[in-house]
Design brief:
Blueprint lengths: L9 E2 L4 E5 L12 E2 L29 E2 L70 H4 L5 H8 L3 E8 L2 E9 L5 E4 L1 H4 L6 E6 L5 E10 L4 E6 L20 E6 L7 E18 L2 E10 L11 E3 L5 E9 L16 E5 H14 L5 E8 L7 E2 L16 H4 L7 E5 L2 E2 L3 H9 L6 E8 L2 E8 L1 E2 L3
Parallel strand pairs: 1-3
Antiparallel strand pairs: 2-17, 4-15, 5-6, 5-8, 6-7, 7-10, 8-9, 9-10, 11-12, 11-14, 12-13, 13-16, 14-15, 15-16, 17-23, 18-19, 19-20, 19-21, 21-22
Length: 451
């Protein structure tokens, strides 16, 4: 199974990305590693990047790693998912860093040989009482880390997954009073085709869980337990967050349940792409220096009001660590903003799947000039500009260079993809495009991907 940013391996962006907002940045699941851009024909192909050794050479971006550890040996898995650039409707890819999908499944998968039992032995009717807040909720000042952590802890869970290819551990949090729990897709993906998911509450009680819906592109999943007595965490508005705000991460890093770490928001709108060529997630991330490690994936990032403002999903690792599994927290972690999380969760609860906005173009991953360039030829046998798509309707052509999205410069395919993915289907966007040395603004309406 993939771990929240399970594998500590770096994830690369595919060389060719399809925008229409179809290219996505690559990051490793938490903890995952950030990596260099993938091959030219895959928007989301992952790849590790080593720091340059030539004096004066630019330092490559630090690859994010997915925080996850294996149940038995804490062996992180390689960065996960990333749709190949074959998907014509992909958004432009964002960072070249491989951000491991947010703290993904804690335990790297135990190399399980033989079929694991998939029938849960946990009885939800005899699961016992719901957890209650700890002493800090009453003995420490309101708004203090101790008070917030004690109050939130009953709503944060550890998720254990067993599947044919192994087992792993991640984190999650209670979304509502109907038993729905939010986590990262990479935490539960391996159990989607047959496996057992067990939710462990902060008081040690267990309950079997089933998957309600999951979305690899945003690395969000919703699971459900047969309990209605669990307290939901309040959700804050990630759009109100500013750099320097204090934050608290809660989860089960390295299998250590009910762990609390704190820090600040160190950056916003960080383009992150995590996963491999087949399973890549794109995140317009909140960056934090709060310690996030394998197993933190899926857990909440809280503000100082105790509200969820993000879901921990990936971490950065130093260049050269690759997928060795030795990478851990270095003070650069990434969380999916609550605005995106809430939107995706509601779509999964309503339709069982999420909607992805696109502009309908393939990007050239080999281009290193200003902005990002649409392929001048076909991509995987498909036109570089999707016929009838938003970009085609707006008059974009193969070889056009996109300089900015809604006035914000785009410096690489990942940034464009993440920027588009952070918007909604139906939104009108303005791109500044250069053709034959002349710049012009074009507008288009984002459409839903057909995948």
């Amino acid at each position: 199974m993939t771990q929240p940013h399970d594998a500590t391996g770096p994830v690369d962006l595919g060389a060719t990305q399809e925008i229409a907002a179809d290219t996505e940045p690559t990051w490793a699941a938490a903890p995952r590693t950030a990596s260099t851009p993938p091959p030219a024909d895959h928007w989301w192909t992952g790849g590790s990047e080593a720091a340059p050794t030539t004096p004066g050479a630019p330092v490559p971006p630090v690859p994010p790693v997915l925080p996850s550890t294996s149940a038995a040996a804490a062996a992180p898995r390689p960065p996960r998912r990333g749709p190949g650039w074959a998907a014509l409707l992909l958004v432009a890819g964002l960072c070249t860093l491989l951000a491991g999908l947010g703290g993904g499944l804690l335990g790297g998968w135990l190399a399980a040989h033989g079929q694991l039992g998939f029938t849960s032995t946990t009885s939800t009717k005899s699961a016992g009482p719901a957890p209650t807040a700890g002493a800090g909720a009453t003995t420490r000042p309101e708004g203090s880390i101790a008070n917030i952590a004690a109050t939130a802890m009953p709503s944060v869970v550890t998720i254990k997954v067993e599947a044919a290819d192994g087992s792993g551990t991640g984190s999650g949090w209670v979304y509502d009073d109907k038993g729905h729990i939010v986590t990262n897709n990479h935490v539960v993906a391996s159990a989607a085709s047959g496996g057992k998911i067990t939710v462990v509450l902060s008081n040690g009680k267990q309950a079997a869980a089933t998957i309600v819906g999951r979305d690899p592109a945003y690395d969000i999943a919703v699971i459900k337990v047969d309990r209605t007595d669990l307290k939901a965490l309040p959700i804050g508005n990630s759009k109100d967050v500013v750099v320097g705000d204090e934050v608290i991460a809660v989860g089960a890093p390295l299998g250590l349940e009910s762990t609390v770490t704190s820090g600040i928001v160190s950056a916003l709108d960080r383009p992150v792409a995590a996963g491999d060529a087949q399973d890549t997630s794109f995140i317009n991330a909140i960056q934090t220096d709060a310690a996030i490690n394998p197993g933190n994936s899926g857990g909440p990032l809280l503000n100082m009001s105790g509200e969820v403002i993000g879901v921990n999903s990936a971490i950065a690792t130093a260049p050269g660590t690759g997928t060795s599994g030795t990478a851990g927290n270095i003070g650069v972690g990434f969380a999916i903003p609550s605005a995106q999380v809430q939107k995706t969760v509601e779509q999964l609860l309503t339709n069982g799947k999420a909607v992805h906005p696109i502009i309908g173009v393939y990007l050239d991953q080999q281009y290193d000039g200003e902005g990002v360039r649409i392929l001048s030829d076909t991509a995987n046998g498909r036109p570089a500009v999707n016929p009838g798509g938003p970009a085609d309707k707006a008059g974009l052509k193969p070889g056009d260079v996109i300089l900015s999205l809604n006035g914000k410069p785009v410096t690489n395919p990942d940034a464009l993809v993440v920027g588009i993915r952070a918007l909604d289907v139906g939104d009108k966007v303005t791109l500044t495009v250069r053709r034959d040395g002349k710049d012009q603004d074009v507008t288009m309406v984002l459409e839903a991907s057909s995948d």
